TrEMBL record:
GO terms, molecular function: oxidoreductase activity
Enzyme Commission identifier(s): 1.6.5.-
Keywords on record: FAD, Flavoprotein, NAD, Oxidoreductase
The name this protein goes by in its record: NAD(P)/FAD-dependent oxidoreductase
Organism: Streptomyces bikiniensis
Coiled coil: none
Amino acid sequence: MTRPRILVVGAGFAGVACVRRLERRLTEREAVITLLSPFSYQLYLPLLPQVAAGVLTPQSVALSLRRSERHRTRIVPGGVVGVDTAAKVCVVRTISGEYVNEPYDHLVLAPGSVTRTFDIPGLTEHARGMKTLAEAVYIRDHVIAQLDLADASNDDAERAARLQFVVVGGGYAGTETAACLQLLTHNAVKRYPRLDPDLIKWHLVDIAPRLMPELGEKLGKAAMDILTRRGIEVSLGVSVASVDEKTVTLTDGRVLPSRTLIWTAGVAASPLIGTLGTETLKGRAVVSPEMAVPGLDGVWALGDAAAVPDLAKGEEGAVCPPTAQHAMRQGKAVADNLVSTLRGEPLHPYRHKDLGLVVDLGGMDGVSKPLGVELHGMPAQAVARAYHWGALRTNVAKTRVMTNWVLNALAGDDYVRTGFLASKAGTLKDFEYTDAYLSPDQVRSHTASFRGAIASGGS
């Protein structure tokens, strides 16, 4: 008897949690498991700002999928660029640029999200993101390069422009990015005796009226106080009107001479979801409480790419926020429902009460709300780091992260550039490959042979 083929798309929190649960609960005779991902690691996304700041090494937050000796999932190194749900085939663009077809019986869609952008002149050509490991490494290089170039320049205007940095997005990613990178430049400038520390200016811009509104007014104000105390200028109710190589123009009319715009203004579901032809909610696939996609046989969706009903809130129409804690638990829940489907057992709806939020602002600062308890300052930072450390999937990752934290606290940083992408701009459109997806007609051309087999009664 042919074993059912389970394809899991995406190696983020949701996808990896699903695969690991399937490996533990299913025997090799019950199913063949395949994971489709461009990279053979799970990225611990919440710690990316610390990678950009040099507190953690890139390897610390890239958790290998091949380390476990019990690992039996086949990993295909590529991204899914189209799905033919009628033929039950995924079209995969491998890292070598080739297209391969992967048939499935059950498809778990956990492709995650991409940086949300808007139709702002110059944005995709000149802004940098903070969504991938490569972007975090590149931003660190770029920021240190601005210090190097400013130090070498004899032009006051150029020097001022290179030392002015703009971060857009007052959510967790933007606030942590601005806070961690401001500490990087604050400490690094001591090694540049020709630079006036007062020339270094950081701006945090967001169209919302408050920073991190999910934390509440009190903690939002505490975060604002921490940032302003460090000299970061926070502008709320403001966004970017346009950007070019040398300036950032804000919607309030200000023109900031700057060579650095870091864009963290939210995320959008992977464009893959938009190619399925299924119902969406703000770009996320609408799913049942069990995370099955209605109308698509054998297809499940979860994580950032799915609008999973939030049953714990008890509010009609509420969906789970795109956070790591929900993604990990949804991955396990989908795996359990898949096992139940294969064994003819009843399915269970996903339900999880949010455990709270933590924000590490670097140094001794943070704001956190674990289980509804509001904390700020050093206690909040300790809670944030303890939570992240505990959430790391492997003991090797935990050891690396803790070692990096201790070493950075004791020895500081050497502010070394790796030269990564030194000859390229390294902007938003260079890292997330959002233009790689196929149209329905292109997908069908790749899966024609499978459709023919179905029409002729083959398998």
